[in-house]
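Table S2 (text version). Query chain:
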Amino acid sequence: MDEAATYRDQMLQSAGATVIPVWECGRGHHWDTALDIAQNVRCMNCASERMTLETKRLREVARVRGGMLLSSSYVDAATPLRWQCAYGHVWEARSDAASRRWCAECARTVFAAYR
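Corresponding C-alpha cell output:
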C-alpha cells in the first residue's frame, strides 16, 4: 500500500499470487498493474490529459510571442519540440527553455545591432 500512497493512487483489489491488483487514481480512473511495477506506472488517462493541456499551453506561449509550436504534441519535459518565431526561424528546444527564452537567431541579431 506504500506505493499507492506515494502516488495518491489507491489499490482497489488486493494482490495475491496470481491476482493483479486494480488501482484507482484520484480522478476515479481504473487500471491494473502488478504491485512490483506499480511505482513506475501511473494513470494513463490522466497522463494523456496532462499532455494535451501542456500542448495547448505551449501553443499559447508561442502565439503570445508571435510564433508557432510546430511539434504535434508535448511528450515530456526532456523531449525537444520544434518552434518557429515570427520571422520564420525554426529551432528545437525543450518546453522549459522555450518558455524562458525564445528565438536564439533573433536574439543574436538584436545583440549584434547593439555592438
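Notes on Table S2: Helices lie at 2-6, 44-64, 95-100, 104-113. The radius of gyration is 21 Å.
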